[in-house]
Model the fold of this input.
Amino acid sequence: MAQGRAARRPDAVAGIVGDWARERPELDTSPLEVLARLHRSYLQYQSRMTARLDEHGLSVAGFDVLTALRRAGAPYRLTAGQLAASGLVSSAGVTLRLDRLEKDGLLVRERDAEDRRVVYSRLTDAGLRKVDEVFSEHLENERRMLGGLSPAEHRQLGRLLSKLERSIVDSDDVPAQPAGTG
Done:
């Protein structure tokens, strides 16, 4: 039923593409078919995810830190550099996030026993319980958001988005062509 409703409803991007076709018919607006929809979908996703995390007193960045520590496995600790390298947390913002999570009792900072210059952030018992609870709810929320896709469509979209990410990263290596020469 949800799939049928979503399939019948035109989306805003179709209107945008139609407007550009009318105003600038010489332009190939086909990238909008994918990237504008991806952007709009991301904004909807982020809004729903943020609302759920807010209910638990967490920011997206704080949640990313907690999940990175949890994924590290026992004893659930990483350095600030390792957290930044995890790909979800920018190095510039790690300290602020760690300060907030430490203040909330979700992690503690510990110096390395052999090299006092190395500082680890480790989940507390409360932090471990919090991340386990919130991550389970997060996955259920994501399942609901993907409810309009069949399992096959879900897998196909996952593969296509992986390919899209590689294409975007690889595009840095391709010189831009002036408009109208492609």
User: Anything to note?
Assistant: The first helix runs from residue 2 to 8. The CA atoms of residues 59 and 113 lie 31 Å apart. The beta strands are 77-79, 107-111, 119-123. The mean pLDDT is 89.
